[in-house]
Design goal:
With 344 residues, the protein is an alpha/beta fold. Helices cover 40% and strands 17% of the residues. It has 11 helices and 13 strands. The longest helix has 21 residues. The protein binds uridine-diphosphate-N-acetylglucosamine. Uridine-diphosphate-N-acetylglucosamine binds next to helix 7 and strand 8.
């Protein structure tokens, strides 16, 4: 049986960690990425970690003709893991059509080619953003999908609907993985998150502040109805998340899925406040972080964390790494970036 997997967005943050885990589990990986939010140096770094550089196609998934050529050359794919998408919330509000076009057209092309070339399995990169602020915590996969706050979030919701509808009418099987807040980096310090410009997300902002690239971290709100007043998220180590993709692909390859469209939450099941995250960073680095409490950020939900029972039971997967490991690895990566690891 073919063990060849296409990873779209494979030079991106979660994609690159997943390529490493797939290769280390014996899969052959091919990557498509248009490098809009990453660099080809990450492909070299993957090679350094695993001893094998994945085959890399620099290509835009909205380029139908190029995709056709790719699928003609790669008719033996066992599965596709589809990460490639734009993901900046505020940019999606400013330029919604850019997001709808990129994130949805690419998916539709992929699904069409999967049918045409009989590629049977898809793992899709979704987000807990589909739940908005859930009524009950921890949030299960049965919680209602709330109206999206941003065009980015809406592309995740619409993508899930497109996949669910299209697999009903085709032999394709799909698993949608709803990520909570992925942070951290590979323990080697060779790959990690590469925010372009000013980071939107908490942990890159913390590490960039500590390294001196940013003056201080703004803590968005300390008046939430939470124990310390700051907002709560379910932070998950990106390597744990990457491993979940391997087991999801294996579930599909072994035909163990119970439906042709399944959804799983990927988190630790534990909520952490912004202040607790800062304290964990200070503890593992021995540094004092420069931060200031400011007003809430528009669109932020007060608290969300995952019920991971389904992933535990059905995927046989559980997050292993704790907050301190997440912070230690994120800091090693930031230091390596500052030392020019991607330039040498
Ligand atoms: C954000 C996106 C979400 C996306 C996810 C993927 C928003 C509103 N949501 O989630 O749609 O799927 O990233 O990465 O952008 N914080 C600060 N100061 C900062 C940055 C963040 O206090 O400089 C706080 C936030 O208010 C939040 C927590 O840290 O409470 C986590 O923020 P972030 O890392 O941006 O993730 P989300 O907002 O959960």
């Amino acid at each position: 049986m073919s063990k060849k997997i296409l990873v779209t967005g494979g030079s991106g943050y979660i994609g690159s960690h997943t390529v490493v885990e797939l290769q280390q589990s014996g899969f052959e990986v091919v990557v498509i990425d248009n490098l809009s939010n990453s660099t080809a140096r990450i492909i070299d770094q993957i090679g350094r970690i695993t001893g094998k550089k994945p085959r890399f196609y620099e290509m835009d998934l909205c380029n139908e003709a190029a995709l056709r050529v790719f699928f003609r050359e790669n008719q033996d794919l066992a599965a596709i893991i589809h990460f490639a998408a734009f993901k900046a919330v505020s940019e999606s509000v400013e330029n919604p059509l850019k997001y709808y076009h990129n994130n949805l057209v690419s998916l539709i092309f992929l699904l069409r080619f999967m049918e045409g070339f009989q590629i049977p399995n898809l793992v899709f990169s979704s987000s807990c953003t589909v739940y908005g602020q859930p009524e009950t915590l921890p949030v299960t996969e049965q919680a209602p999908v709330k109206q999206a706050f941003s065009p980015y979030g809406n592309t995740k919701q619409i993508s899930e609907e497109i996949i669910e509808d299209s697999v009903k009418a085709s032999p394709v099987n799909a698993i949608s993985l709803r990520y909570f807040n992925p942070i951290g980096a590979h323990e080697s310090g060779l790959i990690g998150e590469l925010p372009i410009g000013i980071p939107n997300n908490l942990v890159p902002f913390i590490t960039q502040t500590a390294i001196g690239k940013r003056e201080k971290l703004m803590v968005f709100g300390d008046d939430y109805d939470t124990p310390d007043g700051t907002a709560i998220r379910d932070y998950i180590h990106v390597v744990d998340l990457a491993k979940a993709h391997v087991v999801a692909v294996e579930r599909l390859l072994r035909n163990e899925n119970e439906h042709n469209f399944e959804v799983f939450n990927l988190g630790t099941g534990k909520g952490t406040s912004v202040m607790e995250a800062i304290l964990a960073f200070e503890k593992v680095t021995g540094m004092k972080l420069n931060y200031e409490i400011t007003g809430r950020r528009m669109g932020d939900v007060p608290q969300v964390w995952a019920d991971t029972t389904m992933a535990n039971l059905k995927l046989g997967w559980k997050a292993q790494k704790g907050l301190e490991e997440m912070m230690t690895s994120a800091w090693l990566w930031e230091k390596n970036l500052a030392a020019g690891i991607l330039e040498s």
